[in-house]
Structure formats: C-alpha cells, structure tokens
Amino acid sequence: MTLNRVPAGNATPVRPCACECGCVTRQPCYPTDLTDAQWAVLESLLPVMLCQTVLGGRPEKHYRRTIVDALFYLVDNGIKWRALPRDFPPWRTVYGFCRRWRQDKVTTALADDLRAAIRRGLGRNAEPSAGIIDAQSVAESAEGVVPAASSGYDGHKHVNGRKRHLLVDTLGLLIAVVITPANTQDRDAAVRLLRNARARGRLLQLIWADSAYHGDWAGWALRALGIVIEIVRRCDDTAGFKVLPRRWVVERTNAWITRRRRCARDYERLPSQHAAMVEWAAILMMTRRLARITPATTED
User: Fold this and answer.
1) Does the CA dihedral 105-73-88-139 come out positive or negative?
2) CB burial string 286-300: b at 16+ within 10 A, e below
3) What is the DSSP track for 3-50?
4) Beta strands of the chain (E only): which ranges?
5) C-alpha closest to that of 150 among 102, 106, 182
6) What would the mean pLDDT of 86-92 be, rounded to a whole number?
7) Residue 285 in 3-state DSSP?
8) Measured distance CA(142)–CA(219) in Å, rounded
9) How far is Cα 108 from Cα 152, in angstroms, rounded to an integer?
10) Domain boundaries, the chain
C-alpha cells in the first residue's frame, strides 16, 4: 500500500467493508475507540485507497476506522496480536495494515501531519525550529522476543533491552524516533536522529539536550546541519528531583509514551516495529488533542 495523496475531488466513493464482520456498524465500547470528531481528524490524513484512484484496485474488505481502533486498543492495552477482541477485524488483517503502513512511512506521515495541525491550531508555525532530545532505556519482555543482535545492556540504568531516542518540539510532540540497542551511546544515536529529521524536511535550528549529549557531535551538527546544540546541565549541589528548563518537555513525552502498555516494555522483534508502536502512541495522543482544539475544522 503506497501513500497516495490524491485530492478528494479525484477520489471516487467506495462502500467499505465487503465482509460480514459488522465492523462498519460496530459501536464504540473501549476507551481508545475513536469519536466521530477524532475520526474526522484522522480519516483525511490516511492514504487514499487505490480503488478510489485512477490506478484502480480491489476495495478494502474492512472499515478503516475499525482498523485504527484495533491498533489503538493494542497499543494502549499491550496485548498480543492474537488476543485482539473478536469485535475487531481478524488480527492478521490488522497486523497487515500496521506492517504496510510502517513500511510505507504512513505512521510517520500521520505523526508529522497531526503535529503540524496542532501547531497551526495553537497559532504557531507548522514546522518547529527548536526541539528537545532524550533517550530512554526500555527493558525487553520476559518472552524473549527481542533478538540479541538488536539488544544490549545499559550499565548506567541497569536495563537489558533497547533504547528509544526521541526528538520532540517545544510542545512535546513527536518529531522523530530511533531505536537502538540499550548499550548505544546517546550522542551516537543522536546523529541518526537528526539525519532522520532533516531527511524528512524538518528545518530545526536549535536542540536542547542533557549532559549525555556533550561531545564532538555537537560541532558536527552545527557544521553539517546548521543546528545549534545547547546542553542543559543539572547543578551538582542539587538534591532530589528538580525540573530542568526545556528538558522536562521531552521527559513528559517519555511519560506519555510509557503510559501505553505496548511501549512500557519492548515486545517487538524488529526495532522498526517498536518505533511504529511509539508513533502510534503519539498519534493516539495527538488525535485526541487536535480534536479538542479544532472542533470546527473536523466538520469541514
């Protein structure tokens, strides 16, 4: 499935759900189910089905709203794919959508579009010029599904698993995510993170980070990408917890992501699938936020 950005005027209507599972008439019954306003936000951002374009194709069998509801349910509750409730489409179908959308960068595009819409709704520029970077080590699940090749031991946090590196804007909205073994140095992964963001057209000029990112890579970021790295340090004589300027924003985003049980531990065999789960957790949060701040826009 490709990311078909076809204008609405060029799309022909199609009747969804050619099956008898009842996903079109399914009534919302879980906390993660989309409201009408939230679905209106997401529906226009999803890729147009090929059967609605001049390319043609077989109509999708299941209603996309129910597919997204199933993905949100899985991310929020941390269940196994095979444990999806029976009022959703078959788990293989939902997983297939998740895999194709991950491979085609649909989830990344959704996160970008939602972030831009929220920023515009708050009177800000759609593209952020500043961001905050941080890393979080995540323990792998007891089932041992994480391959040894993509896992490591973080001696500082005493965590065996992977590490996710987040880049967020000043509102705490996700810009980019990179997954590495837990023994990867934060500044080494930061190079990949900034290159990822720049390759997608993010024109950042300033990044705040903690002392783990101090080093020569800051000079590389300025020379190669024109990004200034500003280290926010913690005072040595500070006792206990203290909110640090700018750094608290990405720490809060880490907390938002970890609230989704699929992201509390690492249950994914592929690092790219773990990144997709983080993006779906961000999409869930941003969809709700956008539906609250721009109710009129969703009815147009």
Assistant:
1) positive
2) bbbbbbeebeebbee
3) -----GGGPPP-----SSS-TTTPPP-STTSPPHHHHHHHHTTSPPPG
4) 130-139, 152-154, 159-169, 174-181, 206-209, 228-231
5) 182
6) 93
7) helix
8) 40
9) 26
10) 8-104, 126-269
Two structure tokens written together for 84: 């999806």
What is residue 167's DSSP assignment? E
Rounded to two decimals, what is the model's pTM?
Answer: 0.88
Q: Is the distance from CB of 151 to CB of 140 less than 8 angstroms?
A: yes
168 and 209 in contact (C-beta within 8 Å)?
no
Percent above pLDDT 90 for the chain: 68
174 in Cβ contact with 254 (< 8 Å): no
pLDDT in tens, 112-163: 999 999 999 999 999 999 999 999 999 998 888 899 999 999 998 899 999 9
Phi, psi of 153, rounded to the nearest 5 degrees: -115, 125
Helix, strand or coil, per DSSP, at residue 124: coil
126-269: CATH, from 3.20.20.70, 3.30.420.10, 3.90.180.10, 3.40.50.960 = 3.30.420.10
Distance, first Cα to last Cα, the chain: 27
Residue 262 has what pLDDT?
Answer: 95
| pLDDT value at residue 10 | 42
In angstroms, the CA 282 to CA 111 distance is: 7
Task: Identify residue 26 by its one-letter amino acid code.
Answer: R
Task: Please choose, from the candidates 208, 223, 214, 142, the residue with its C-alpha nearest in 3D space to the C-alpha of residue 170.
Answer: 208
| pLDDT beyond 80 at 6 | no
